[in-house]
Amino acid sequence: MKGLTLENKHLQLREDLPLPVPNANELLVKVMYATVNPTDADTVAGNHALLAKLLGAKRHLVNTGLEFSGIVQKSGKRFKQGDRIFGYVDLLKGIKTHQEYICIDEDFVALMPAQLSFEESAAMPLGALTSLIALQDLGQVSKGSKVLINGASGGLGVYAIQIARLLGANVTAVAGTNTKAFLSNLGANQVINYQQPLKSLQNKFDLILDLSTLVKYPQIKHLLNKSGKFIPANPFNNLPYFIGNAFRNKKVKYLMVENGDSEKLTLISSWAAQGKLRPVVDSVFSLANYAQAFRRIGEKGRRGRVVIQMSE
Q1: Global pTM?
Q2: Residue 125 C-alpha from the chain's centroid
């Protein structure tokens, strides 16, 4: 079995990995496509090693790749052999998706939208699910909510814009140059160049979702309405500000998708099937060209997800 292995912060392609054996509550899945995202690049750099250890993660030979699309090889309780599914894995613990076969709990997957290809479906699950949880569950976005999305052209932002609009929000998107037409087409009401400092904005927002992972609460608190919420995609950069939640109306929300949620994935699949939610694929690479895929993650101008074809 082919897959990527991480040895001393260096990824390499191997063809002698053992075929995983599913537990009673797991599916055996042939991975067709998998994404590469900034979390994978951070993993290679060793940025999550201490956190993973503190959370009890066991080291796995293959440990990059979070999203995938594939075909069920061994039936489970809800999914049968031959089903085309898409899903995600735990961000820090357990097996990852950059290999030809994985074993995965059924709670972490849903049936693919019939209208989408494997590469399109692989680009959706974690980005769309994280956006949905941030906006609906944490941000309580509803019709008329004013939402600012910073870092709106990346793998999460392209779904956050669409889902915020589905929930009835007015969306201001902050992204790089030459993205206005692209983001407006996804549903953004206003598009602002990221070179304009956020502190210079005049509007107030019910929710600010920072997907750049660079913004800290003191930099944007003046932009929040009285009971506004700030959701950083990387909560660890804002840990001191969670403490103050008990003493102010404006809240800093903790965003981390750790558990499986097949129900929400199924909703996302239905939106995509109805044309209400569109996948955004930046680029597709072969497994042999995985290094190029990882380099693309660090390049400017990326729109949506970078995808690797794992199997023929």
Answers
A1: 0.92
A2: 7
pLDDT tens readout for residues 117-150 = 999 999 999 999 999 999 999 999 999 999 999 9
Cα 64 to Cα 69: distance, rounded to the nearest angstrom: 15
- Per residue in 266-312, pLDDT (tens digit) is 999 999 999 999 999 999 999 999 999 999 998 988 899 999 999 98
> Which fold is adopted by the domain 3-124+279-309?
Quinone Oxidoreductase; Chain A, domain 1 (3.90.180)
Domain ranges of the chain: 3-124+279-309, 127-252
HSE, CB side, 13 Å, CA atoms: give it for residue 84. 14
CB-facing half-sphere around the CA of 40: CA atoms within 13 A: 31
- Cα torsion 77, 83, 86, 88 to 10°: value is 40
Among 181, 184, 233, CA closest to 210? 233
Looking at residue 221, its amino acid is K
Two tokens at 40?
């994978």
